[in-house]
Amino acid sequence: MARPDDWLIVAALLFTWGTAIATFVAIPDGMGKHMFVLTRSQFNRLWQNLFAYVNIYVIAVSFTKLSIVMFYKRVFQILKLAWCLVAVVLIYPITVIITICNSCKPLEFFWTQYTNPQATGSCIDISTFFFANGIWAACIDVGLLIVPVPLVWKLQMHLRKRLAVVGVFLLAGFVVVASIVRIIMLQKNTQSNDPVWTIAPVYIWSSVEPFVGIICACLPTLSPLFKRFWTAGRTQSSSRMTPNSENLDKISGSKNKHLRKFQRGMSADDEVMLTSVCQKQAETTARHLGSSEEDIGTAEQIHVRKDFDVDWNSKQASIRSEP
C-alpha cells in the first residue's frame, strides 16, 4: 500500500524530469556558449528558461525532502520533530518562489535587461540570490542527514545492525556532495562576466542533485533488494565450488554412453577369443590340482573335476569339456 512518502517521491520524480527536460531545451538556445555569439531571441529564450528552471528545481528538491521527512515520521514515530522539519522544508520553496517571481519589476526585465538597451526596470542581484539559494538547500540536506543517526542509535538491536542502518542513511550524503558541487558552480557564475558561458554547469548540477536525492531517499526501502542479490550471489559462488547430483548424473550418463558404444563395437570373434582364454586358464588350474583324487584336497571343500579335449585341426582352436 502506497504511503505519503511514496506519493511525495513520485511527485519529486516528475519535477526532476522537468529539470532534465529544461536542461536539454536550453542547449539549442545557447547554454554554455559565449554571450556575444547569441542572438537576442536566443538569449531571451534562455533566460526565460532559467526563470522557469529555478521554480521547477525548488519544487523537485522540496518534494524529495518532504518524502524523507514523512519516512522518518513513519519509521521512528517522531510526530513533533517531523512536523517541525516539514515546516522548515516548506519555508524554503515558498521563499524562493516568491523571491524569484518578484526579483524584477517588471518581470520581463529579468531577461530584457541584457538584450534591450531601452528596457527599464530594476532587479535584485540574481547571481547572489542563486548562490544563497544553493547554500540554504545544502544546509537542509545536512540537517536531514543527521536527524536519523541518534534515532537509529537508540533502537534495541545488535550493534552490527545499527551500524548497517546508520550506514544506509549516511549514504544519503551523496546528495550533500552534489549540493556542494552545485554551490561551487554558482559561485563561479556569480563572479563571471559571461553568465551564459558559466550557467551550463549550474544547469547540469541543478539537475543531477534532485536525481541523486531521489536515489538516496529510496535507499532504506531498497535494502531488502540489495540483501537478496547479495545472498543470491554468495549462493551461486558456493554452488560453483560444490558439484550437485545433476552434474554427477551427467558424468555417470556420459560414462555409460561410452561403455554402450564400446560393447556395440565388439565383434563375435572378440567374444570367442575371450572365452578361449578363460577356458585355457581353467585348464592350467586343473593341471595344478593334479589328476588323482588324492590330490584334490580335504573332504570339507567342494571341487569339480573335468576332462578337456583340445581339437587343433580347425582354424580356430576349440575346447570341449566333458564331465
UniProtKB/TrEMBL annotation:
Every Rhodopsin domain range: 4-228
Residue spans crossing the bilayer: 7-27, 47-69, 81-100, 135-153, 165-184, 204-226
Protein name: Rhodopsin domain-containing protein
Family recorded in the similarity comment: Belongs to the SAT4 family.
Keywords: Membrane, Transmembrane, Transmembrane helix
Source lineage: Eukaryota, Fungi, Dikarya, Ascomycota, Pezizomycotina
GO cellular component: membrane
Lipid bilayer topology: Multi-pass membrane protein
Subcellular location: Membrane
Domain of life: Eukaryota
